[in-house]
Design brief:
Blueprint: H1 5-33, H2 37-40, H3 42-61, H4 67-87, H5 91-118, H6 125-153, H7 156-177, H8 189-192, H9 199-219, H10 222-228, H11 236-258, H12 263-284, H13 288-303, H14 306-318, H15 323-350, H16 357-391
Helix pairs in contact: 1-3, 1-5, 1-6, 1-7, 3-5, 3-15, 4-5, 4-7, 5-6, 5-15, 6-7, 6-11, 6-14, 9-12, 9-13, 9-14, 9-15, 9-16, 11-13, 12-13, 12-16, 14-15, 15-16
């Protein structure tokens, strides 16, 4: 892989750490601010919603800015947002810090996906995108557990100071490794939105919302679930998040390796498997061993869909001439799904269904994503048949 991709990997590592670290720090943050756990979870939902809104906004505002320059400014914004969260005196200010940080997420991955695909041959594009996303998976394997440990040993604020330092490293990496490129040619805003009239793009984006939302419904509440239901100690959450990160790493490898060969069958299989694992997780959450296995499989099957879905959206949007905006919006939709999952998990807990209930809720969401994937496959088949008939 080109060395320039490592700058994207570093940025993805920082973004992944700040996004998912809330799962490990949720009880400490709730206690510090004196709020209930579902209220503290607004730090997750606000981040996800901020990505959804900020991704297209920043792509449009920066449409005449060179990609390298945009990445630098996005990394600077990332540093500022994490520092605001770290020094926040109230939960409201902490949420503002999360919103600032979230503005970086979608645009960084959107621009990065396009850059990654442009740097490699056509038959390696999913693998290049998956390589960039490996920073996200390594964040869950190393960054999130390390930040959680910092939060438990010192304070949750220390975790966000550490994440801000990763942002500084990202700025340096982008400046040093990403080659300079000319400013893009200005395009009409209406043209940028042309991709969203394509039914296949919309279906793929629907899969984007529901697929990752399924495992995010569960993982957002993994700390109280594992301590209250499975009987793990608070200190065990650190290595449980490492198990989750290992699952993400394996799933990212799986999706990147096989989606170039059979993208849609990969989506069908992983979405169904994710649903089954989540349903099983609900019934075996009181078993420590079974919980560990389910956490790994939930993450692996869930994240195996990410780079294939991103490539699917980019392919469909490229035909309409607006892959960068569609790519960034799709990243925002991943996080809209995360917000939906975090909200739904909190809602079923608040209704009195217990801390394991987010698992079955996530299972139903995964089945919804599978239905959309099947619909997309049917449309692809019909389109191919029509082309063959016209050729005859």
């Amino acid at each position: 892989m080109p060395i320039a991709l490592w700058a994207l990997v570093v940025g993805a590592f920082g973004i992944g750490t700040t996004e998912f670290v809330i799962a490990g720090l949720l009880p400490a943050i709730a206690a510090d601010f004196g709020v209930a756990i579902p209220v503290a979870a607004h730090l997750a939902t606000s981040y996800a919603l901020g990505v959804f809104v900020g991704a297209p906004l920043l792509i449009i505002l920066g449409s005449r800015t060179a990609k390298k320059t945009m990445l630098v400014w996005l990394a600077v914004l990332f540093v500022i947002g994490n520092l605001v969260t770290a020094i926040a005196p109230t939960i409201e200010v902490a949420i503002i810090g999360r919103l600032i940080t979230s503005l970086t997420h979608g645009a960084f991955f959107g621009i990065g996906s396009v850059l990654a695909a442009e740097m490699v041959p056509k038959d390696m594009r999913v693998r290049a995108i998956a390589f960039m996303f490996s920073g996200l998976t390594v964040a869950n394997l190393v960054g999130v557990p390390a930040a959680t440990w910092l939060g438990q040993q010192f304070s949750w604020q220390a975790a966000f100071y550490g994440i801000a330092a990763i942002g500084v490293v990202t700025v340096v990496a982008v400046l040093m490794l990403i080659p300079a490129a000319p400013k893009p040619k200005p395009q009409r805003i209406g043209h940028e939105f042309s991709a969203f009239r394509n039914p296949q793009v919309l279906l793929a984006m629907g899969i984007t919302v529901l697929g990752p939302a399924a495992f995010f419904t569960s993982i957002t509440y993994i700390a109280p679930m594992m301590t209250e239901v499975a009987g793990f100690s608070e200190g065990a959450i650190t290595w449980l998040l490492m198990v989750f990160g290992l699952g993400l790493f394996f799933g990212n490898w799986l999706g990147g390796r096989y989606a170039d060969r059979a993208l849609m069958p990969m989506l069908y299989g992983t979405l169904l498997a994710q649903a089954l694992v989540l349903f099983v997780f609900h019934f075996v959450a009181s078993s420590q061993l079974a919980s560990v296995v389910c956490i790994f499989l939930m993450a692996a099957f869930g994240f195996a869909t990410v780079s294939p879905i991103q490539k699917l959206v980019m392919d469909k949007a490229k035909a309409a001439g607006a892959p960068t905006l569609a790519s960034a919006v799709n990243i925002g939709l991943f996080n809209l799904g995360n917000a939906l999952g975090a909200w739904l998990g909190g809602w079923v807990i608040a209704q009195g269904f217990g801390f394991s209930s987010p698992n079955w809720a996530g299972g139903f969401i995964s089945l919804g994503a599978l239905m959309l994937a099947i619909a997309s496959g049917v449309l692809d088949h019909r389109s191919a048949v029509c082309k063959e008939l016209k050729a005859v």
